[in-house]
Here is the input.
Amino acid sequence: MTDMRVPFASEASTRQLTDALALQRKAYFMHPVPTYEERRADLRQIKRFILDNKEALIDAVCRDYGNRSRHETLLAEIFPSVDSVDQVLKHLRGWMKPRKRAVDIRNYFGAKNRVIPQPLGVVGVITPWNFPINLTMIQLTYIFAAGNRAMVKMSENSRHLAKLLMDRMPAYFPPEKLQFFDETGGVGIEFSKLPFDHLLFTGSGQTGRSVMAAAAKNLCPVTLELGGKAPAIVCDDYPLELAAERILFVKYLNGGQICTTVDYTWIPEQKLGAFVELAKKIMPKRYPTLETKDYTSIIDERAFDRLVGALEEARSRGATVVQLVPGKAYDRSIRKIAPHIVFNAPEDCELMTREIFGPILPIRTYARLDTAIDTINAGPRPLAVYPFSYDKRVIQTVLDRVMSGGVSVNDALFHVGQHDLPFGGVGESGMGHYHGHEGFETFSKMRPVFYQARFTSMKFMMPPYGKFADRVFKFLIK
Here is the structure.
């Protein structure tokens, strides 16, 4: 795919962004707190858009990828987006209610404390290419549930989808509520400079740093959903075949292009050979050839070249590279790389130091669990960690000693699909949360309000201070 990015956005594009923000902010000030019924209608409209345009959405994403498994789009994008709306609708009324907080009755007799969730205003969303439906619609679900308006900047690798959204979404939402923007060159830079009330970015850590730096000039709060090298840890007590089936499914889903996929796997050293043999049996049944439509292409030529180069670097430096399906190792014409396992790779090679984001699974071995834990902790905190064990003490050890954004125990990735769990990174894998109640709070101002009583002891605590004030403080300060 040709790289169409240029350093700077045109004046027309910049003006379009600023005009859109001005329009939405004006609408916000005119109607800052949508009712429960209005928010419910917005959520239903998101769902209606997805269902009305399901086939077109699937086709657009497939065209952007070159080939994207229809069933993977249904599984990882369409279903979670619709299900998220349904789940939020169940909780919305309760989330919107003011929350009571305790009042210090020694000072304020009859006073009240409340925390009132109120909309922030206009939220900017920068959406990545790997799950562009999911990572647009679910985010909008929480943004609209909290009563906000939204501007969404799509990826340069989502051209077909961006056009579909820009063409069809105005029939569902007016521009003062929701607008989409394509990446025509430098738009993302200008987008992140806008003085939003909140900015949500999903993507690489390198770009996330730039987005955060641009947002900081406006003191715009940000939620960053990044990535990193998420490890699976297969413990000795866990059935190896079951671990292989689950890890390999998640690893090669979407061609490995998932921020929360298993980046690499720890295996007890005596079980390495058995794991590789299991993988060689399992994978051809799932993907008989590269040509199968169930196996997703790499998004563009630059990513394809990076992955092939990383694989060849590891091989040339002594790593053992195992291809898991028959036929070609890769096919540039359809941008597909066969599933591979790599072990004995040098510590400083690209596969071991950079998030892979492709269908290559490095294996590391350990004799003691401490080795895996200490090695993980020596690097940046990952977006997820995946321990496999039936021993509760072992699982708790991993939970206590390895900090990550999220955890799936005895599987991988599936914590992301639990709509009542918050999702987000920690440290270099991101900051902030969305999904669940935490998602509603992310896009709300949890506003503290104190309601003073008609009569209050503060009447006796005003200047000029005297002996009575001294007696009051003696009573209060013990």
Remarks:
- The longest strand covers residues 112-119.
- The first helix runs from residue 11 to 30.
- The two ends are 71 Å apart (CA to CA).
- The chain is about 40% helix and 15% strand.
